[in-house]
Design brief:
The protein is of the alpha/beta class. It is built from 17 helices and 16 strands. It has an eight-stranded mixed sheet with strand order 1-10-12-11-13-16-14-15, sandwiched between helices. Strands 3-2-9-5-6-7-8-4 form an eight-stranded mixed sheet.
Amino acid sequence: MNSRALFSLAAAVGSGFFCLAAQAQAPSNADLTPVQRLEQMTTVSNGAWSTGDLANMTRLRDAAMSDDYALRELRHLTDNIGPRIAGSPQAQAAVEYVASELRALGAEVSLQKTTVPHWVRGAETGALVDWPDMTPGTTQKIVLTALGGSVATPANGITAPVLVVDSFDQFRALPDSAVKGKIVLFNEHFDKRLAAVGNGLSAYGDAVAYRGLAPSLAATKGAVAAFVRSVGNADYRLPHTGATSYTEGIPKIPAAALAAEDADLLANLTSQGEVKLHLVLTPQTLPPVPSYDVVADWKGTEHPEQVVIVSGHLDSWDLGTGAIDDGAGIAVSMQAIHLLQKLGIHPRRTVRFVAWMDEEQGGEGADSYAKDHASDLMNHIGAIESDLGADHASGISFAGSLALADYLKPVAHVLESIGASQITSGGSGEDVSALKGVPGFAPIQDSRFYFNYHHTAADTFDKVDPNLLNENAAVMAVLGYALAQADTPAPR
């Protein structure tokens, strides 16, 4: 192919060419011809891996794309075991099931003890009982769900006027007298436009502060309950739960998330006049209980003491069955071990599967693991966590040294054929971030739709596309093997 043809090809593929160029070695000889320069820019070296290692990565990628192991495991977790909120019988059943499945693969399995909260939801109802121009003798149902960790109302509920504010600043500007004795709704909108262009995590981060801070902030001015507009993307009259927190020294008041449509309803009616609402929440916070992370080692051949973690979190919220949050992350991590066993691949270092417990309510499992392994974190070469669903995986996100971007180029090149060649310094999972100093990784996952279902009753098995789940499994298996097999460990 002549230089003109090469240039035409580069122009035709556009940004795809520049992606390849970004993955290539910089030209080292200023006297190279244009053709040689283009060839050098589009050639990826083996880096820290041999040709045989790269061949094994290709085998793992292709096997992941045709294997239904992750899908079958996910279906059992969601349909047979069901919701897995920390402290529940289902969470313990999931621990036992996953441990048994990993033992069946020949991994060395242990249970890492931790202590988790035990919060039980109870009844949750809301109804408008007085509003402008109401039909006498009627009520209007409000669709809501208690926030995780919320305290209860009295058994017969509370009835109080509703105050709607759009921001923390608007709330702070109010006198205490305007808030005292009322139910305060913080009507912060999830940014759908941001999510629509693939920045769902950013939209979530902007809104989730209200879920965490609203109850204590509202209580400082004498509110009797706090509501937040659901932190989520889809308007299907689905409330999104999630953990809230209480500040020591401030009264604890009941807290709930409203479906977006009901938040709009309250905003409209309160603009016309006084609105009163009757609220019943009966959650219980029981004493903490013992639970476990599931740890399963596929032992390394040369440096078994050095480990690479592949992981997801095993607990889920209790409204749905935890398919995308985070049964999918568990299933693709299990599949990484399954594929190593199936293909007879034993890397230099140990590949360690971890099913974290209690990511949703405080990260107790990750904290316990980090504390128990504090003395050997230097032997943790890398830690991968999948916790953003199971939509298209476009590459690898990392947290740590910027040198990881160059280091991972050969791995990204292997994943290019499934559209997963992107490398970004975008962070890693919540649990693995507890392992201070350890390079962290996560699949880059399409987040446009994840927050439609996140923390809702609609987080169920049918939301998972088998082909896209396999893409995520491929990224997990290839990256896990690559980090465990590399001639030189991932830069810290």
